[in-house]
């Protein structure tokens, strides 16, 4: 018995030493990312690890809300996160982001003027836009009578009949209601109950023609032919298009949603300097281009364009022309008015 | 004597487990249901009944709750219709066969439910195998995104919960009673309906409860197979917690409400069973 206890004690002490050793020695050499899945090219990690002699550890979140609740609940150990536009605003307000030292991130100069000082962080004190994209309509060109050009192609019953039960809409209140608002000529961020009521009726008219509300698998379903046309995010369609050139993407002429994911450092990070170096590394033109060529999301980085594949740069679905970009709108965090959207959405989905 | 003294102590680990993993989370959920949601999804710890008032909105009751009750009832009936003959068949096999057949019934449990629902997803999609089978007959089958697709997934997922308790009672049944019934002039139907079935009631009751209650709160199958077009209260609750709305207090109030509804249904169920003299 005594021997057992002695051995147990030795193990305990060893364990404590081991743990202390890990804390002290390993930590500064590790960079913990908490980002969207498949959002940085694995090759880029290897290059960074080689150059800086550190280890990058990636963990994924599936929604801005998951990221937000984790940080809010006091989960620590993350050095870099990729929140979307509206979420950056909320994270700043709750004091969850560390202030960036832009002098340590000289490659910030590569960011396009259009993406500097966006509404949610006017001085880029906490965040740097990384990749961006749009919400619009993806379709299988060979299966539609004519290529869609307007949100009307998703909302007018006369046109819907041609592809009934082969349509999907994003399963997201802001995106789906936003598309209806845009078709009606209103703002994506409308808080006018009358306008939202009209949007609700439009969505209810559309519902019988839909195959599903779907935010995850619509790109696969376009490829398999189960869907002919889908409301979704530009990057998903761009990747589907890489597999089948018949898959196209269009931003409707009424305009759509623009969004940007950002590089930011949580206040709780114990490795801020390394994180800043990593951000600077990601903003190097060649590195940034590697990511864009892999993910097919447009980058905020102007200098990277020299290294981006021409087929990506010249694809209007990925890098839309200026006259379309000017019609895009950001989804703002509406706070109290979110309740209005939630109510409309529940009504649409419960009938 | 000694084993009696040990008895209560043996309960301790189980009780502790229940306390930490059932009672405590339940208490947290109940307290959140009385809290208030602040902008951005934060929670203010107060005591308010407004979440319950909102959860009782006709919006949720008419669509999701009614649909859940209806689909749970249909699933239970479906599982019973498929499960009873199956359980009966297995119970009448020689013992060594029974073990194998039972193993086959629970075999799907070795795979994650999500993965199995995805398999149905692939079978039921418009260009899937099932649609391809009926296409030559000029039938366009749109099971994915319809209540029927959801029902198929639910019956599939919960069938073992019906089969196992039914088997347990049928297996213990003394089948010489059937011979006795025949000797007394009963037809096969009469001997089943007046002898076997009444004796298997405990299994039917247990199976129905084991299917009906979890299906009432189910969200995975309806979400994936219903494509967001088949409202169920489980989905509505899940969206309050994990969706963009982030209204935990409302979600918690709905969850507590669902629990109360389930208890209510159960009490009524047993009352009816008593009136029908199914249970004593």
Describe this structure in words.
By secondary structure, chain A is α/β, with parallel strands linked by helices. Chain A folds into two domains: about 30-130 and about 260-320, 3-Layer(aba) Sandwich (D-Maltodextrin-Binding Protein, domain 2); about 135-255 and about 325-350, Periplasmic binding protein-like II (D-Maltodextrin-Binding Protein, domain 2). Chain A has helices at about 1-25, 40-50, 65-70, 85-95, 150-155, 155-160, 175-185, 195-205, 220-225, 235-245, 270-280, 285-295, 310-315, 320-325, 340-350; strands spanning about 30-35, 55-60, 80, 125-140, 165-170, 210-215, 230-235, 245-250, 255-265, 330. The longest helix of chain A has 25 residues, at about 1-25. Chain A starts with a helix and ends with a helix. Chain B is about 75% helix and about 0% strand. Chain B has helices at about 1-35, 50-55, 60-90, 95-105, 115-125, 130-135, 145-170, 175-185, 190-200, 200-215, 220-225, 235-240, 250-275; strands at about 35, 45. In chain B, helix 1 crosses helix 13 (about 250-275), helix 3 (about 60-90) packs antiparallel against helix 10 and helix 5 packs parallel to helix 11 (about 220-225). The chains are: A alpha/beta (about 350), B mainly alpha (about 280). The interface of A and B includes residues 69, 212, 347 and 351 of A.
């Amino acid at each position: 018995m005594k021997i057992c206890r002695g051995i147990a004690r030795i193990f305990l002490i060893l364990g404590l030493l081991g743990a202390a050793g890990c804390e002290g020695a390993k930590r500064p050499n590790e960079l913990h990312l908490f980002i969207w899945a498949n959002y940085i090219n694995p090759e880029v990690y290897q290059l960074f690890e080689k150059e800086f002699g550190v280890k990058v550890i990636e963990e994924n979140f599936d929604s801005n809300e998951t990221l937000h609740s984790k940080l809010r609940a006091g989960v620590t150990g993350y050095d870099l996160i990729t929140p979307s536009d509206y979420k950056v605003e909320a994270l700043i307000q709750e004091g969850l982001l560390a202030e960036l030292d832009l002098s340590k991130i000289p490659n910030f100069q590569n960011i396009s003027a259009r993406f500097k000082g966006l509404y949610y962080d006017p001085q880029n004190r906490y965040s740097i836009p990384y990749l961006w994209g749009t919400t619009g309509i993806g379709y299988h060109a060979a299966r539609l009578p004519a290529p869609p050009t307007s949100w009307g192609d998703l909302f007018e019953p006369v046109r819907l009949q041609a592809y009934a039960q082969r349509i999907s809409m994003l399963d997201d209140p802001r995106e789906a209601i936003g598309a209806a608002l845009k078709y009606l000529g209103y703002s994506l961020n409308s808080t006018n109950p009358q306008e939202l009521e009209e949007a609700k009726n439009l969505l209810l008219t559309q519902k019988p023609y839909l195959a599903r509300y779907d935010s995850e698998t619509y790109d696969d379903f376009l490829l398999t032919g189960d869907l002919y046309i889908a409301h979704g995010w530009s990057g998903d369609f761009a990747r589907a298009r890489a597999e089948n050139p018949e898959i196209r993407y269009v931003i409707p002429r009424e305009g759509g949603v623009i969004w940007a994911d950002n590089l930011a450092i949580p206040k709780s990070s114990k490795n801020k300097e390394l994180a800043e170096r990593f951000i600077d590394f990601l903003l190097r033109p060649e590195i940034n281009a590697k990511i864009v060529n892999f993910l097919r999301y447009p980058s905020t980085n102007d200098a990277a364009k020299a290294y981006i594949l021409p087929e990506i740069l010249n694809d209007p679905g990925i890098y839309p022309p200026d006259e379309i970009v000017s019609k895009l709108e950001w989804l703002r965090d509406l706070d109290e008015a979110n309740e209005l959207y939630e109510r409309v959405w529940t009504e649409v989905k419960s009938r | 004597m000694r084993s009696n003294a040990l008895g209560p102590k043996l309960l301790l680990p189980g009780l502790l487990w229940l306390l930490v993993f059932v009672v405590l989370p339940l208490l947290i959920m109940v307290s959140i249901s009385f809290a208030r949601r602040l902008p951005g999804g934060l929670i203010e710890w107060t005591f308010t009944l407004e979440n319950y008032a909102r959860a009782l909105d006709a919006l949720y009751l008419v669509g999701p709750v009614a649909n859940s009750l209806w689909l749970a009832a249909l699933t239970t009936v479906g599982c019973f219709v498929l499960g009873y003959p199956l359980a009966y068949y297995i119970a009448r096999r020689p013992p060594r066969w029974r073990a194998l057949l039972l193993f086959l019934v629970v075999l799907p449990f070795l795979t994650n439910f999500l993965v199995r629902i995805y398999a149905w997803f692939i079978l039921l999609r418009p260009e899937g195998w099932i649609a391809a089978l009926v296409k030559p007959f000029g039938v366009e089958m749109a099971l994915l995104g319809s209540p029927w697709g959801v029902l198929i997934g639910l019956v599939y997922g919960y069938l073992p919960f019906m089969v196992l308790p039914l088997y347990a009672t049928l297996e213990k049944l003394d089948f010489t009673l059937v011979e006795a019934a025949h000797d007394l002039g009963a037809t096969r139907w009469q001997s089943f309906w007046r002898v076997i079935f009444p004796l298997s009631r405990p299994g039917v009751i247990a199976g129905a409860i084991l299917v009906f209650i979890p299906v009432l709160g189910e969200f995975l199958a309806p979400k994936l197979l219903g494509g967001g077009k088949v409202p169920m209260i489980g989905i509505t609750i899940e969206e309050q917690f994990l969706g963009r709305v982030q209204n935990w207090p409302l979600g918690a109030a709905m969850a507590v409400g669902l629990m109360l509804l389930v208890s209510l249904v159960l009490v009524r169920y047993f009352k009816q069973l008593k009136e029908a003299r199914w249970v004593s």
